[in-house]
Amino acid sequence: MADLIELVVPDIGDFDEVEIIEVLVAVGDSVEENQDIITLESDKAAMEIPSTHAGVIKELKVAVGDKVKEGSIMAIIEANDSSAAAPTAPVKAEPAPIQKIEVKSEAELVEIAPFAPDNKSGVKQAHASPSVRQFARELGVTLSAVNGTGDKGRITKQDVQNFVKQKVNAPAAAATSGSAIPPVPVGNYEKFGDIESTELSRIKKISGKHLHACWLNIPHVTQFDEADITELEKFRKDNKDNAAKQGVNLTPLVFIMKAVVASLKLYPEMNASLSEDKENLIIKKYYNIGVAVDTPNGLMVPVIRDVDKKGFLELAGELGEISLRARDGALTAKDLQGGTFSISSLGGIGGGFFTPIVNAPEVAILGVGRHKMQPVWNGSEFAPRLMLPLSVSYDHRVVDGAMGARFTTHLNHMLSDIRKVLL
């Protein structure tokens, strides 16, 4: 005949009484040795108390909300013969060790859903004890994605371990672009304070996908330099009023566009695109410059065609007209196509150096910061000079560091004396 044994609370540390927050078994349940019976929670931690014997629960002596201490009777168990022979000395409750999962190679790593607290936004509620929740957090698992095999669908530690094993052993999904980069976990932001969800504009959705693809597929290098535009700015101001009489605004960007074209002619690899099979470089004999325009709905890059064939005033007029249409949302698909090189100018907003993202299928882009007066050593003394921050990003598969540096240096040289673009 099986023995009836009292299951008592073991040494739980320096606590007088601890509240029961969960009873994990019911009368009539068969339990294994070391299977959790109740969950206790103090002001410092939560812990689960296991059974010291295997058998069938005949009577429960506790309920949720009761407070217990070392020696308190949890339940009466009808132990099987092998279990009854085991020593009954209380054992201090300790958290179960975390099972290590061996991964043979980096290629076997696949996405494991990141931990996110259960919420009320349509995600199913996970039924698990505090220690299982902590165990899942340590492994980076979202409990709502795990199927519980315990009583009433309760998630056990074994369920979490099996979930991780399935993910690790599953065949890796093929990468769709760039590389198999895992997604960024989405947090339960409202738990920290008030939030507001605003839908991205159509332009931001479209440009965002394109920029993401460019960043993943192009190995970027960015070259930084400063151009002395003291003389250029003097020339611009001297001719600004005359341009205004012709109905155009003569901005520094017009001169930068012409200087870029002069540099592209000397370094044609910067005015090119890779072939679809990435085996050939397609060098373009025309110079269509894309200019990033900040609009209320997001960034757009209309293209100014044949910049090499147009004068400063003509370019100024066309740049003003296409920028206005961009802000009014009146650009056509043709206005956004055919670029060979792009310029992103933040001069009117502020800031210095940054890393512009190459606008594929182009292989290079120029970022322009805000110019400022600086003391520059001229060989005998420091003199005030107007310096313009330049950031040239390029596709390192096409443009090596030496060419990138030479292009940037030549562009700097052109901007220092804008008359040289006429040569």
Q: How would you state the average pLDDT, rounded?
A: 83
Q: Structural class of the helix and strand makeup?
A: alpha+beta
In DSSP terms (H or I, runs of 4 or more residues), the helix count works out at: 8
- Provide the CATH top-level class of the largest domain: Alpha Beta
| Apparent shape | elongated
Rg computed from alpha carbons, rounded to a whole number of angstroms = 34 Å
CATH superfamily membership of the largest domain = Chloramphenicol acetyltransferase-like domain
- Helix share bin: 25-40%
State the major sheet.
Answer: 7 strands, mixed
- Under the CATH scheme, which architecture of the largest domain would be assigned? 2-Layer Sandwich
Q: Which stretches of 5+ consecutive residues score pLDDT under 50?
A: 86-123, 173-178
- Give the percentage of residues in beta strands: 15-25%
Number of strands: 19
Succession of helices and strands: EEEEEEEEHHHHEHHEEEEEEHEEEEH
Number of domains: 3
Distance between the termini: 108 Å
At the fold tier of CATH, the topology name of the largest domain is Chloramphenicol Acetyltransferase
